[in-house]
Design goal:
The chain is an all-alpha fold. The chain has one domain (15-447): MFS general substrate transporter like domains (Growth Hormone, Chain: A). It has helices at residues 15-42, 44-47, 54-85, 88-106, 112-115, 118-146, 154-162, 164-182, 185-192, 194-212, 218-225, 233-240, 242-251, 253-271, 276-286, 303-331, 333-348, 351-355, 358-377, 380-386, 393-410, 412-422, 428-447. This is Metabolite-proton symporter.
């Protein structure tokens, strides 16, 4: 009589491995983006886009900042295709490599003074490559977390990759702050700004090490076992899930707009000279020409002081990202986001009274804004993937997330600066712009359905 044989248990990803692998990738993602966003305000206008009008240099720098957002939907299609064809693990490794290599190379680029027009061209190419990698990074990390989540905890697990945003922000701006305090302005402009880009290589190596140890998620393994792997995921998702694609894009719109207004516009407006006299004095000291016709006043905060204020405020971003998970599980994703989006709408109308109230008012604005950011961004790690069937989930959630990045983030800093300048230094229309985006998101949420109880593992198109 032969002895019974037992199949070995299927390998699973432990909770700690899921948390670390999903968190490390998005931390690197947002570290990379914050490093560029900060440099786009502080050094790139002078080093890569020199012009007699500093406002033109700033707007050009922000335009290149937006190039990555144009590349992200392309990346979402490319990496989404492979994520729904060959699996989440391999695709996450490839997206991290693409993003990380581009970021490190930015740190080695020669400036306009060395190679002329080739400098901004190469910067734009690297920025585009960053966007390609980022197009597949977030969705894969969100799926890694939620497709490994226990029953009734998808929204909680979905906050793990979202927590990478405040962590990446704190690390990136902490590095910039450390460099600013430890070296002269001349050294920072000469070579110090390169350090954060080159140092990201350390984070990439750690991320790759963790991700190589993953096994495939249970949900995608069921897709394979059922023989339901889509031949062309992008075609299938547009054919079977076009409505969730549209809704997901606009559900994410206010989140993205708030995100980049709080991280790029606030730094620009907060550190701009508060008077023409101060701006002229700085220009005279630097040996440059001051043009009063193009001067737009800001708050006049010291750069390091404002970075400290941002870092403190982002702590609230992280706290309320974690808080949003249990709220979305208890009250549902839709209700949680509707209440939060109404809060964003009202917040936009408070831009002028808060930004005009000195240090206390500005600090209050930053804390409120980043608190709302945590409450709206946290649930997105579950909401967008839950809109799509498992066999097109990577592609669908990635496309919605990244198309929202174009509508809400690629243009946000550019529009905000233009509105600020058009209002003669007042942020009133910037706040109205944020409120308008919140209205659009609110409409999308009202006509959408709750996704908390969808059959996540066996849901196929």
């Amino acid at each position: 009589m032969s002895s019974p044989t037992f199949a070995p248990p299927a390998a699973v990803n432990t909770r700690s491995r899921v948390v670390l692998a999903s968190l490390i990738g998005t931390s690197i993602e947002f570290y990379d983006f914050y490093v560029y966003a900060t440099a786009a305000v502080l050094v790139f206008p002078k080093l890569f886009f020199p012009t007699t009008d500093p406002n033109v240099g700033l707007l050009t720098s922000f335009a290149v900042f937006g190039v990555a957002f144009v590349a992200r939907p392309i990346g979402s299609i490319i990496f989404g295709h492979f994520g729904d064809r060959i699996g989440r693990k391999k695709t996450l490794v490839a997206s991290l490599l693409t993003m990380g290599i581009a970021t490190v190379l930015i740190g080695f680029l020669p400036t306009y003074a060395s190679i002329g027009l080739w400098a901004p061209i190469l910067l734009t190419v690297m920025r585009f490559a960053q966007g390609l990698g980022l197009g597949g990074e977030w969705s894969g990390a969100a799926l890694l977390a939620t497709e490994n989540a226990p029953a009734g905890k998808r929204a909680i697990y979905g906050t793990f990759p979202q927590l990478g945003a405040p962590i990446g922000f704190i690390i990136a701006n902490g590095v910039f702050l450390w460099l600013n305090l430890g070296m002269s302005a001349a050294d920072f402009a000469s070579w110090g700004w390169r350090v954060p880009f080159i140092a990201s290589a350390v984070l990439v190596v750690i991320g790759l090490y963790v991700r190589f140890k993953l096994v495939e998620t249970p949900a995608f393994q069921k897709v394979i076992d059922a023989g339901e792997v889509a031949a062309v995921p992008v075609a299938r998702v547009f054919k079977t899930s076009w409505r969730p694609l549209i809704l997901g894009t606009f559900i994410m719109l206010a989140t993205y707009t708030l995100f980049y207004l709080m991280t790029t516009f606030t730094l620009t407006f907060g550190t701009a000279f508060s008077s023409a006299t101060a701006a002229k004095a700085a220009a005279d000291k630097a040996g440059t020409t001051f043009n009063p016709a193009t001067f737009t006043p800001g708050l006049g905060f010291n750069r390091n002081d404002f970075l400290i204020m941002l870092i403190i405020s982002v702590v609230f971003f992280g706290i309320f990202t974690l808080v949003s998970g249990p709220l979305a599980e208890r009250f549902g994703r839709r209700k949680t986001l509707i209440v939060t989006t109404i809060g964003i709408l009202v917040f936009g109308l408070l831009f002028v009274p808060l930004f005009g109230a000195g240090t206390v008012g500005t600090m209050a604005l930053l804390i409120i804004g980043f608190t709302l950011m945590g409450l709206t961004f946290g649930p997105m790690g579950a909401v967008l993937p839950e809109l799509f069937p498992a066999n097109v989930r990577y592609t669908g959630s990635a496309i919605s997330y990244n198309f929202a990045s174009i509508l809400g983030a690629a243009v946000a800093p550019f529009i905000a600066v233009a509105l600020w300048q058009a209002a003669g230094g007042s942020p009133v229309w910037v706040g109205v712009y944020l409120s308008a985006m919140a209205v659009i998101t609110l409409i999308a949420l009202i006509i959408s359905k709750e996704t908390r109880d969808v059959d996540y593992d066996s849901n196929l198109s």
